[in-house]
Amino acid sequence: MPEHALTAARRWWLPSLSSLVFLLVAAFASVFAGNHLLNADGELARHLTIGRYMVDSGHLMRAYPFTYTLTNQPYVPMEYGSELLFTALYQLGGLTAVAVLCVTVIAMTHALQARMLQVRGVRSWLTMLTVTVSITISVMFWQARPQIFTVLFTVILLTLLERLRPVRPWEALLLFVVWANLHPGFVYGLALIGVYGVGAVAEAVIDKESRAWWIARAKLLAQVFAAACVGTLLTPLGPSLHIHIVKMFRLTYQFEQIREFLSPDFHNPAWRPLLFGILLVIVALAVSQRRMQVQYLLIVLSHIQQVLHSNRYATLFGVTAITVTAVHLSPEWIKALRNYKPGVVRVAERWYLSGSPAGWALGAALLGLVAWRNTSSDSSQQLIPTSFSESNFPVRIVERARRDRHEGRLFAENISWSGYVIFAWPKEKIFIDGSGDFFGDDILRMSHKVRAGKPGFDKPLNMYDVELVVAKRKGPLAEALAES
């Protein structure tokens, strides 16, 4: 048997790098991140409630029937596709099915990130380092929310923009049709194409030897951008989706108060991986002897600015800025390692050039095993919760209130609780929940005033005839209510 055939026979079981990433991330997320995935906040419960309403009514939700504060306000269901998908899975297999979908999307995201780096010639050791840093940055954002689709589609778009065969406009059209129907983060994708287009124009000016190529590249990216824009219009919402997104940027109070819009707190150990990632990018660029292409430089600088201003961009920083930095540095680092550690490079290159898709199959089998174990085991042995957590949401309070047939307009001290309330107590109406784009700054400001329990806290409650309040027993709101 030829030597190459023997080598292939010995390696048929060895998973490719991207499939190995899929397997490892799926295993880690299933075992360690299940509770956080479903119970980090009340957004999943809210999305399931909206999806359930649309399934039961047979049409998109154009008003918000779960609140008494904005009864006449039109509602724009920006994430209707994700909500319908989550609801369909929930009806088929409960929270386990929703969790398995989200774990699959997360694992697929980082597996495709690894695959894209390999296609661009980044060797295995640097690919693993890049993906590992990206995962450690994003793990705290692993939640069952529609935003996971934006992260996945960002990696797919980056792959299309970075591959050797030029991206085609129809590919962008299809990608953005799906993207716009699942999550409004498609705006980020349009901006990313725009950055590549600006970079191509700048490179045409700087790189005179390749000017013709860069000009052709810029023209192609203009067509891709136009096709992507058309794709975002192919939703049931049409241009009203885009108008609503523009209006969201006027909500200044939310950007100043909601945790995910605030700057990361590097005194908190949970944010240290992000700080490490930022410093790693800066150091890598400082030691680089090659000029970074303009589009890469714009991506790195803009993402550092974004993530320092708002922590919600941390995941996108990990899958975009760190990824293009690895693409830029790969040729230099491969040359340096060959000079100092030739054996390391030979081993890494063999892995890069070999391997089978076994990891994909093993990952899929693992997720199937998790789903089977979850549905066939008692709660103490389940890897993923099958119900919302009593430690995160007022589960017992809602059960008791429903059993005792309490009724009336409700105010929940924690906005995340409101998402659970409308899910578990469908006929109850709440003051505000996580639909920040719908409630706006004024309602959020009033809710914060009530939560603080300071003089005048009861004015919003009296204004809306609130009859039920869910609050922490020893919190400021409970104390203020006891004194009033």
Describe the overall structure.
Residues 1-10, 333-341 and 344-354 have low confidence and may be disordered. The longest helix has 40 residues, at 80-119. The chain contains 22 helices and two strands. By secondary structure, it is mostly helical.
Throw out a few tags for this protein:
mainly alpha, 22 helices, two-stranded parallel sheet, 2 strands, 484 residues
Tally of strands: 2
Q: Identify the overall geometry.
A: globular
Unreliably modeled segments: 1-10, 333-341, 344-354
Rg is 25 Å
Strand content: under 5%
**Terminal CA distance:** 88 Å
**Mean pLDDT over all positions:** 86
Helix/strand-derived class? mainly alpha
Percent range of helical residues: 55-70%
Largest pleated sheet: 2 strands, parallel
Total helices: the number is 22
- Main β-sheet, spatial strand arrangement: 1-2
State the order of secondary-structure elements, H for helix, E for strand.
HHHHHHHHHHHHHHHHHHEHHHEH
SSE inventory with pairings:
Blueprint (H helix, E strand, L loop, with lengths): L2 H9 L5 H16 L1 H6 L3 H15 L22 H40 L4 H15 L8 H16 L6 H12 L5 H21 L4 H23 L5 H10 L3 H6 L14 H16 L6 H16 L4 H27 L1 H12 L4 H19 L18 H9 L6 E3 L2 H10 L11 H17 L5 H6 L4 E3 L5 H8 L1
Parallel strand pairs: 1-2
Helix pairs in contact: 2-5, 2-17, 4-5, 4-19, 5-6, 5-7, 5-17, 6-13, 6-15, 7-8, 7-9, 7-15, 8-10, 9-10, 9-14, 13-15, 14-15, 15-16
